Amino acid sequence: MSSKTEIIADTNLVTDQPDQELNGSHIENTGGKPSYWTTGQKFALRVSAIFFLVMSIPLSGEWYKNLFGINWFKIHYRDIYDIARFQPSLYHFSKPSYNLLGYTDWLQVLAIALVGAVIWTLVESKKSKLNYDTLYYWVRVVVRYRAGIGIIGFGYTKLFPTQMPYPSLGLLNTNFGDFTAQKIYWLSVGIVPWYQVFAGVVELLAGVLLFFRKTTTLGTVLLLSALGDITYVNFAYDGGVHIYASYFVLFAAFLLWYDAVPVYNLLVKERFTIPPTYFPSFSATWLRYTRIGLKALTIFIFLIYLFYAEYLNFFYDPYKQPAMKGVSVLRGNYHVTEFKINNQTVPYSPLDSVRWRDVTFEKWSTLTYNVNKPVKLDLSNGGGSPMRDINRTFELTGTAGGKRVFYYDADTVNHVLYLQDKYVSARDRRGSKGENKLKKDKADKNWIPKQALANIGDEIYRIDKNAVSGRRIKGIAEEKQDKRKRNHMVLKYATQDGSRVILSGIDDKKDSVYIVLDRYKKDYVLKDSQLQAGRY
What's the fold here for domain 328-520? Predict the structure, then answer.
């Protein structure tokens, strides 16, 4: 008979051995009884508390500026999405290779947490009554809600498939070999919008489950699985979102540890294990109502109101896809039947670097064509928060093969298109000197006559009135102050029914052009989807 007495009564295990030895890393709390924490575990929790607190608090002044600048009565989905979408951004080295694929921020936060934990350990008295079960509980609450809010914002852009749009005609006409790896992945998801919706449901469900303590484990498993996959494919296809995706993997791993230890003890070590059940007291009335009120507010903003904002965005103002209708009679694919430049006819030749080919007028206000000379690649994903159609570049990004993409304003009274090149170098978008550098060009300042602007109409209100948001009104006004010089063209169009279109005017090289286009019908292997953003 063992000298150590063990008594099992109801669900409680009583032993003269420390619970730490019995159940693994520390005792699983029962009936509100404090758990046993070793010195090492306390230090690890201090590090975790500081680390995840810093990782969960927005450190950018721009974040707070956006938060307090929101017009809650004219909401835009991006207003709420930007509250949810942030990660720590501290010091970055000028040489990209030193930034370790973007993970230097994490290492800096870890260094802060280690130093903070050492100071905390030195300051904390041995007689401290700090309840580490309570500390662990609140760290998990912070991590749960940060991960839940963030993944819901992520998930809605898939539930309403705008993150990876259905390909435009210009993209469908592009040779596969002219796409970057990133673009191939984004398009491979974009062509199956119902799969994108499914991915959104998984992410949204993970976020909802994380809002509730009893369903946290299920939400964590979904979060780890979904975002682990996204992290992998972003590394595999150079997607550029690997840091933000793995940010949620890190949070999920921390949350899962809570259940992983007792499960390991039960299944691997085959020890009697009582799952953790600690829950702090909310006996004070104000604490109960504050807790319920904050949870209800969070659910309303990030589940209900964000759903409404995303609904408006999907139907009337998709953020990667131009929102405004193009000239309906021009829509379609065209062969270039005749091409003149400065009154000189340029015959077709596959080697010619001037003559246009594969012209497309999209259902929105975009003209695309190919030329036989290289163009600089835009390696972004075409996202961000552009309020103007000219800045929505998914139809351009990651695409080579001489693809030119122009946004146009149409004066349908005088049948004139005012076109601007959608390409702007990445360096220039960051405000650096380089191609298309920021400067005033007096000759181009008034290149669209006032009468034409009156016929074109106000850009802000050329979408459905229900989708006109405070962010759009403010954002377009700010973006119009952008003085970047863009290539532009002014072309008159003449057509009866769109089957033949004649363009004439001045191109982006200031040469006069005369172009005859004949529409053709192209049958794609890919069937047209009914689940596409925008109303045109």
Answer: Lipocalin (2.40.128)
